[in-house]
Specification:
The chain is α/β, with parallel strands linked by helices. The chain folds into two domains: 1-115, 2-Layer Sandwich (Transcription Regulator spoIIAA); 118-258, Rossmann fold, CATH 3.40.50.720. Helices cover 44% and strands 15% of the residues. It has nine helices and six strands. It has helices spanning 7-19, 38-51, 69-75, 84-97, 142-158, 181-186, 192-214, 232-238, 245-257, and strands spanning 25-30, 56-61, 104-107, 119-124, 162-171, 218-223. The protein has a three-stranded parallel sheet with strand order 1-2-3. A three-stranded parallel sheet has the order 4-5-6, with helices on both faces. Helix 2 (38-51) packs parallel to helix 4 and helix 5 packs parallel to helix 7. The longest helix has 23 residues, at 192-214. The chain is globular and about 55 Å long.
């Protein structure tokens, strides 16, 4: 893959940026090395990022557009596309290899997979209940990091491309309890259900704050589509199948039509 510069030039130029006091952001293209080359691509990329840590790592997915040199390479048999699974494995490996903490990691796949740089709906449905490692490297409780903080940061980053009158939907829960900021900051030892309930009320509170900030520019709602839906999270936490997921999907669909 001819990127227009060598690996040595990449190290040299980024070093100059750092020496001059500039921050830099890294765009990592999953699948750009082609089938069978993903691991070496990611390992070499991680070495570069660990040497000169960026303030933002933005992940994008390689897609082949019509009438491009890459399409010709594919048609000539010189480039074989990775599967979607292989691209996910690349992203997972990169996360495992990165050694710095003070940076945003943003999966911006939609930027190069949609033709228009605009989205109409953001649905925050990430959720963790049971976890073996409950404290992050930043000493945050993992439920707060995944269920509350990450969706808020992701939404803030996507706001510039959210359409006028767009909608932000936070998937909450019937499980809610008073939020203790000390628990969030110190990584206090909490029972699974207590941490989860705090994180789910916290995302509602964040949503209300964001709605006030955005005013008439967007709609921000929080919704509990139904408790104990048959998700992987419910099965692992309670050892039960749960209710039909399509019920919750229909509730979300109705909300989006309102």
């Amino acid at each position: 893959m001819n990127k227009g510069f060598t690996k040595a030039e990449a190290y040299e130029n980024i070093a100059k940026l750092k020496e001059a006091g500039f921050e830099w952001d890294a765009i990592v293209m999953l699948g750009v090395a082609g089938k069978g080359n993903g691991e070496i691509h990611i390992r070499e990329t991680a070495k570069l990022l660990n040497t000169y840590p960026p303030y933002l790592v933005s992940i994008m997915t390689t897609s082949i557009a019509d009438d491009t040199p890459l399409e010709k390479m594919r048609n000539d048999g010189d480039f074989v596309e990775c599967t979607e699974r292989e691209k996910i494995e690349e992203e997972k490996l990169l996360l495992e290899l990165l050694e710095f903490d003070d940076a945003y990691f943003f999966g911006g796949h939609m930027y190069n997979l949609i033709s228009q740089k605009q989205i109409d709906i953001i649905i925050n449905n990430a959720g963790v209940f049971v976890a073996d490692d409950t404290i992050t490297k930043e000493n945050l409780y993992v439920r707060f990091a995944v269920n509350t903080i990450s969706p808020y940061i992701l939404t803030k980053l996507l706001l510039p491309i959210l359409s006028e009158k767009g909608r932000v939907v936070n998937v909450s829960s019937a499980a809610q309890t008073d939020v203790d900021l000390n628990d969030m900051k110190t990584g206090a030892k909490l029972y699974h259900d207590m941490a989860y309930a705090q994180s789910k009320l916290a995302i509602i509170m964040r949503g209300m704050e964001m709605a006030q900030d955005l005013g008439e520019n967007a709609v921000v709602v929080s919704i509990n589509p139904k408790s104990f839906l048959g998700s992987k999270m419910v099965k692992e936490a309670y050892g039960r199948q749960g209710y039909d997921l399509s019920f919750g999907a229909n509730i979300l669909h109705l909300q989006l039509l309102c």
